[in-house]
Amino acid sequence: MWDPIEQKIIDIIDSKKDEIIAFGDDIWHHAELGYKEVRTAGKYCEWMKKLGLENVDCVHMRAEDGGADKNLRESFDLCISRAVANLAVLSEYCLPFVRVGGTFISMKGPDVEEEVNEAKKAIKVLGGEIKAIKKMEIPETDIVHSLIFIEKVKPTPSKYPRKAGKAKKEPIM
Length: 173
What we know:
The chain is an alpha/beta fold. It contains six helices and seven strands. A seven-stranded mixed sheet has the order 3-2-1-4-5-7-6, sandwiched between helices. Helix 2 links the parallel strand 2 and strand 3 (56-60). It is globular.
């Protein structure tokens, strides 16, 4: 059974302060979870530290570098990400962080069918398997997001993630 207190969670997000604020609000209510965030902008890591959250580490590095780092690679139970890149590229950034048996959840817009189909090969190559796609409406709005749940079923091959920029220029498809 999933016990959130015993889980290691990583969030891969772009350098958007509003996303950090929203996620920070969630952390305040669930600080017991423990949390690590990989950021590309050092100033946001400093901002996160100033929030004074316990059990939160902010790592200033590119996701491609973090996914290859032996201290971070395949060491997280859950990886979450919101709208950083298309799903094939995002899977290359995120799945290397997830341990076998763990889950990667990608939040996307309402229409994801084509993007999911284009990313299936990448997800499989990287050791993942799509388990579910769930639509979610933001309360008191008409905004709908899709949550794509990808289970890590086998280790990611050591050649992934590739060097910075390569996944975006030449996605696995």
